[in-house]
Amino acid sequence: MTPMIMDHPLIQHKVSLLRDKNTGTKDFRELVSEIAMLMCYEATRDLPLKEVEIETPLSVARTKIVSGKKLAVIAVLRAGLGMVDGVLKMVPAAKVGHVGVYRDPETLLPVPYYCKLPVDITEREALVVDPMLATGGSAAAVIKTLQDNGVKSIKFVCILAAPQGLAHLSEAYPDLPIYCAQEDERLNEHGYIMPGLGDAGDRLFGTK
Ligand code: PRP
Ligand code: URA
């Protein structure tokens, strides 16, 4: 499935501010949350609807509400945590799961270390959130973890992606819908997205 690059002007604008090295932790956090909210709006465009009758103060309206599977937001620790609030603003009833994976700085390979999912995860559609898709190793490990736990319906939402990460993830999971705000040029020799925004986790949590 071809990754969907979300080029909405508001998303573009906010990603530009996010990239700026002078954007501090507070603004960085707010921007990640706002971008996640806008991306969630797009990523949920295909949610099924059903017709209902609603009594207005004047009459009865035949109108639509979301039906089908409920959502679970899956945050990839740490940086994915920054996107959870934004998604929950759009879908307040969603449950939240956490999958911990860090990237070994030498090998750049993913090291899974934590997984806590909603008990009814197999009945939910999972929206995996992580701002950065670099080599794609972490995302692929998370998708595998979800599939191993019986999750059938999964979407992946990131803010910046490197071409290598998009290729890796879509080759490993050809049916996985991938949503991304911007595709960058390349990875540097340390596996960082270029021009990128730096280390998303450190900028979100002020750890460097
Ligand atoms: C970052 C980011 C992704 C991963 C992407 O996490 O949030 O999870 O790197 O890299 P990849 O596509 O090459 O696997 P990091 O490993 O820095 O962990 P942290 O958020 O806990 O600092
Ligand atoms: N993780 C990040 O936080 N930033 C990158 O550029 C690559 C991986």
List keywords for this structure.
208 residues, alpha/beta, Rossmann fold, eight-stranded mixed sheet, two-stranded antiparallel ribbon, 6 helices, 12 strands, binds 1-O-pyrophosphono-5-O-phosphono-alpha-D-ribofuranose, binds uracil
User: Overall 3D geometry?
Assistant: globular
Give a quick account of the main beta sheet: strands, pairing sense, barrel closure.
8 strands, mixed
* Overall CATH architecture: 3-Layer(aba) Sandwich
Strand-pairing-aware structural class: alpha/beta
Question: What's the N-to-C terminus distance?
Answer: 36 Å
Number of helices: 6
CATH topology: Rossmann fold
What's the SSE pattern? EHHEEEHEEEEHEHEEEH
Strand content: 25-35%
Bound molecules: 1-O-pyrophosphono-5-O-phosphono-alpha-D-ribofuranose, uracil
Kindly report the oligomeric state of this protein.
single chain
Poorly predicted runs of 5 or more residues: none
